[in-house]
Amino acid sequence: MPRVRTPVALMSAAVLTLTVAPTLAAQQPSTPRAPVCHTADLALAWTSGGTAEPGGSNTAEQVTAVVSVRNTGAGDCTMRGYPQVTLEMGTETEGVQSETFFRRQTEQPRTVTLKPGGTATFTLYFLAGERSDNVIDPGVADITPPANTSSRQLHWPWGPVQRQEAATHPLNYVGPVER
Questions:
Q1: Which domains are present in the chain?
Q2: For the segment 68-100, what is each residue's pLDDT rounded down to a tens digit?
Q3: Spatial CB neighbours of 81, under 8 Å, sequence gap ≥ 6
Q4: Under 8 Å CB-to-CB from 140, ≥6 apart: which residues?
Q5: How does pLDDT run across 18-35, given as a tens digit for each residue?
Q6: pTM of the predicted model, to two decimals?
Q7: 16 band by pLDDT with thresholds 50, 70 and 90
Q8: I want to staple 81 with a disulfide (CB 3.0 to 4.6 A). Which of 18, 128, 146, 157 is the partner?
Q9: SS3 state of residue 14
Q10: Which of 49, 35, 28, 30 has its CA nearest to residue 111?
Q11: Dihedral pair phi/psi, residue 84, rounded to 5°
């Protein structure tokens, strides 16, 4: 014989659920989110894992270089997204030439939390080049971490890079920050 629920039993269950649910939710500890990593608290360096060679001996092919990002601050911090990377060549008196990397849209960014001393990385993909009219032979990479406006500069050891800013399908791009 099937069990029949009475309206009183259903009403009691609803009242109990509505009374207990907010109490349980209030008892759940909330985890505060770490603040965004600030450029002043980050150390950037080239690290292993890329295919680029110092001096740029890999000509006319796409190569990679990996940048390590270390939290030098006193507390945890977070990063999410793509750094802005611009290669620069020349001086203010001679004129500065630049090449800005595009975002690699095929890779989805995730939030990365860095403890003090913790590291994350991101990868630069670029078309190595021989010295000609359509290349830049940069001295530095100017790097702005995600959600920041100030940058850090790294000496560029990888030789000439083919310009791609005006290309229909550019081959110079940057991946998101990741662990």
A1: 39-174 (2.60.40)
A2: 999 999 999 999 999 999 999 987 777 789 999
A3: 109, 146, 147, 176, 177
A4: 87, 88, 153, 154, 155, 156
A5: 444 454 445 555 567 899
A6: 0.80
A7: very low
A8: 146
A9: helix
A10: 35
A11: -95, 130
Task: Name residues whose C-beta falls within 8 Å of residue 78's C-beta, 6 or more positions apart in sequence.
Answer: 33, 34, 35, 36, 37, 111, 112, 113, 114
| Mean per-residue pLDDT over the chain, rounded | 85
Residues with Cβ within 8 Å of 139's Cβ and at least 6 positions away in sequence, in order, are 88, 89, 90, 155, 156
DSSP 39: G
* Integer Cα distance of 104 and 33 in angstroms: 27
List, in sequence order, every residue forming a beta bridge with 164; answer none if it has no partner.
none
* Torsion angle of C-alpha atoms 157, 67, 41, 115, degrees rounded to 10: -150
Three-state SS at 67: strand
Write the CB contacts of 131 (distance below 8 Å, at least 6 apart in sequence): 137, 160
Q: Encoding tokens for residue 140?
A: 């530095």
Specify the 3-state DSSP secondary structure of 135.
Answer: strand
Report the alpha-carbon distance of residue 78 to residue 73 in Å, rounded.
12
